[in-house]
Amino acid sequence: VPLTDGQFDALVSFTFNLGAGAFQRSTLRRKVNRQDHAEVPAQLMRWVWAGGRKLNGLHKRRSAESILYRLQA
């Protein structure tokens, strides 16, 4: 699907951090492919857990990716 530079950059950052397999199986990818761009930032924010705990570092990273995704280029 066509993406803005910000959308592309946010998805590359996410995929680099979690791995292509996690992205491939995710609802996030389905939202992107359906061009449901308004839902993508919320989907990014679901990926802030590791070992059953919400991690502040992951929350900050996903927040930055969400902001980047919303940028218009």
Automatic annotation (TrEMBL):
<dbReference type="GO" id="GO:0042742">
    <property type="term" value="P:defense response to bacterium"/>
</dbReference>
<dbReference type="InterPro" id="IPR051018">
    <property type="entry name" value="Bacteriophage_GH24"/>
</dbReference>
<dbReference type="GO" id="GO:0003796">
    <property type="term" value="F:lysozyme activity"/>
</dbReference>
<dbReference type="InterPro" id="IPR033907">
    <property type="entry name" value="Endolysin_autolysin"/>
</dbReference>
<dbReference type="Pfam" id="PF00959">
    <property type="entry name" value="Phage_lysozyme"/>
</dbReference>
<keyword id="KW-0081">Bacteriolytic enzyme</keyword>
<dbReference type="GO" id="GO:0009253">
    <property type="term" value="P:peptidoglycan catabolic process"/>
</dbReference>
<keyword id="KW-0378">Hydrolase</keyword>
<comment type="similarity">
    <text>Belongs to the glycosyl hydrolase 24 family.</text>
</comment>
<dbReference type="InterPro" id="IPR002196">
    <property type="entry name" value="Glyco_hydro_24"/>
</dbReference>
<dbReference type="GO" id="GO:0031640">
    <property type="term" value="P:killing of cells of another organism"/>
</dbReference>
<keyword id="KW-0326">Glycosidase</keyword>
<keyword id="KW-0929">Antimicrobial</keyword>
<dbReference type="GO" id="GO:0016998">
    <property type="term" value="P:cell wall macromolecule catabolic process"/>
</dbReference>
<keyword id="KW-1035">Host cytoplasm</keyword>
<dbReference type="InterPro" id="IPR023346">
    <property type="entry name" value="Lysozyme-like_dom_sf"/>
</dbReference>
<dbReference type="InterPro" id="IPR023347">
    <property type="entry name" value="Lysozyme_dom_sf"/>
</dbReference>
<protein>
    <recommendedName>
        <fullName>Lysozyme</fullName>
        <ecNumber>3.2.1.17</ecNumber>
    </recommendedName>
</protein>
